[in-house]
Design a protein that fits this description.
682 residues; mainly beta; Maltoporin, Chain A; 38 strands; globular
Length: 682
Amino acid sequence: MKKQNWLFILAGGCIAMSASAQETRKDKDLSVELNPVVVTGTGTHHRLKDAPTPVDVITANDIKKAGITDFKEAMTVLAPSLSFSSNSMGDYLMMNGLGNSYVLVLVNGQKVNTDVANGNLDLSRINTSDIKRVEILKGAGSALYGSDAIAGVINIITNQPLDQIRVSSNTKVEGHGQTTQQVNLDVQKGMWGSYTSYTYRKADSWKQNDYDEDGEWTDKTSNDGYDSNTFNQKFTFAPTEALSMYAGGGYYDRNFDHKGYDYGIGYESYNLSLGAKYKLGRASYVSLDLYNDNFETNKTYRKETSVKEWGESVTYGIGQTGLTKRNHYYNANLKGLFRNGDWGRTVVGLEYVQDKLKRPDALVDKGVYTLATYAQEEVEFLKHFKATAGLRLVKHETAGTNLAPKASLMYTIGNFNLRGQYSGGFRAPSMNQLYYFMNKGTTLTNGNDKLKAEKSHYGSINAEYIGTRFSVSATAYINQIDDMIEAEKTLFSKMDDAQKQAIYTEAKDKLGMTDAQVAKLKTYKKYANLEEGLIKGFEVNFNSNLGAGFSVGGSYTYAYARGKKYNEETGTTEWQNIDRSIRHSGSVNANYAQSWKNYLLNVNITGLFHSKRFHEASDIDESAPGYGIWNLSTRHSFGQFEIGLGMNNFLNKVDRRPFGVNYFSTNPGRTLFASLTINLSK
């Protein structure tokens, strides 16, 4: 173990020793919570059993038992309806057959900007040590959450401890130089509260194979080594029982080795938030939340390199850094929740959103605003029924006015629930799709500011049983998406001279391309509302407390995801598997927990299984094969101290195919890990 890792452990221990010891929480660690409080499905608090809209929940205890300190790993292992295809730039997320741009990621209801490049996400900025629970809403959630919530919503709810002082330190080391150090300091005194967290991560690079598909040796890696820092701070102030306020912010950076390239890659972001809530009697309130999130990607050059920025040639020297892209997101949300006696609740709100993108290589320096008003009504009637109806009216600066409705009905008798819902979703065109203009190789790509919003119609039926020791649920769904945005490809050789010359002139004027460069162009791509999608599937989940310290859970998801696309080779429209979709996925989780006086033992085994990940290029099937990965984690708790030992991917399942293929996973193989956690409070 490197000296740096021991210093982290020592530092965490010194901080922890300054507080007095907390009481052990054996009952919480031993139990499987089958009925937590959730908020994402309706925007109002419900016990999971009583929620009108079905929501999947992953608790902090679930993450802890699995020995996980990384958010993407937690979602991969514990939520099989989510899948990730990863490369050195980030992760591509799929939820029930649809990709990144159709999934809305929130922290406490506020959007997290994680878009980096090539459609990938950077989820490392989400700090697992702050997580109280993760709520996953499947299907369109635009009536409450606006654009992008077509496949679903992932809402991370963070801790706000009630202890006067709480200090925690978690150090984890694993093979391939993977190190995580998390430190939290929470102070709550009277009307004031302060919540601070810091996380440092690093990992070495690794390869799946030393050779590419042509049999040539490559020094490029399937997983880039990196180091990252994440800092979050939140202050709360509650001068009266009715009024509470908060202010917060966070900073994140991540720098990659990016071996085999002439440049390294770096990500950097910061966010600011401010809000207040005023209670209006029993279970009613008005709140205002202001939020700003910023994320940028840059390159640091290892040799003198000339690039095109704003249509001009710019030369960077060794060690100089250039901006790749910068996103700004602004949100103001005024919301009111009003209790209507004992039978219902009304939610109304106004929201303003502005997205800005600066991208020198694609000539984008634009901003687009969205205005929205929304309302939702929850009612309980005839003793066993709950109904929810909602509507969002949206005015997007370029895509016009859109409506997103929602309706759900729930019938409860004893421990059984039956639910049915319909919800509409929409996704406004991205800034790239609106304004992108770029030449790459022999392809010229152009945005389209006349794009319409993508729209979806989602329907589902859910049956559920929640008992004291056992729960099982089954959901069947269908999701239809219209006006899907895709880049329409046209060969320059098939254009008439007037059309071709108009595009050539624009490329020379805006991008500074020469006659020789435009003569080499072969393909012209322009974004348009070209496609439609249809996803049908079902999901089954179960959890159980077997007694004597044993608990077992599992899930299975089937998603038949197809898109209607134009085939430029045949000139016809045909149905194809949606790229990167997975037909079958599942997970199992077995846990044993037992305590003896001040010692708690926890043993956890998780298994994750996926069928092949579809990817078709022309007539070539480049799908990634199916796979299964098993992880073993043990925790040994001694009062406020906890030691974790385990083995990830203990069957050593690795995709060893040549570099550049569509890997099923970039998992490096069997790795051992060890962790030390200190939790103290006063």
